[in-house]
Predict the structure.
Amino acid sequence: MKIHYLPKFIRVLVFDIDLTLYDSHEYYDSQKYLFMHRLAQHLGISYQETSNKVAAIREEYRRSNEKRSLTLGQTVFELGISLEENISWRNELFQPEDFLTLDLKLAKTLEILQKTYQMAAVTNNTSTIGLRTLKVLGVNDYFPIVIGIDISKESKPTMKPFNMLAEKLNIPINQMLSIGDRFAVDLELPLENGMGGILIEQVSEVYELPSILKNI
Ligand SMILES: [Mg+2]
């Protein structure tokens, strides 16, 4: 865990979902594999050729953008895949239920946190997949708001979903804390905009949040 910044007054906890609320790299990697497989079908080329194309686009972007990297969604957009296609492929292909199970410790943790904070999840996945993921982990009840790319229409890194959240809850952005596993995707822009930011390396670190936040 790395605590980058904690505002004095925190009212909203904004969690990333993938690899923040679960550790299964197997599930995470299955998403990449299934999506690339679907993309290969769509482009009518082999999986390997598709991988090479995606890698080349990312490499080119890194070279011209000070080593910043593109998310998968942004990369396939460069290949002509619309946000609508991206969304329907994800909803059709990803199966969190095949990889994840109930996490009672996580549920207990979130139950404690929701007594003090408003809770939301912001994901670069779709809201449907996000909700199914929260459900199989047994924590969907703790997230009254889930913003996926079908709602924000932009994938992180962008302030769009965070700004939508601030507006919806009528709470200033600098009273919100972003918690996620990727600095450049989940934390960098929120920090620049006055939000708090905590980097999570494994879900066991999420279990520590109640005691960490109590001590500030
Ligand atoms: Mg993540």
In short: Residues 25-43 form the longest helix (19 residues). Residues 16, 18-20, 180-182 surround magnesium ion (CB under 6 Å).
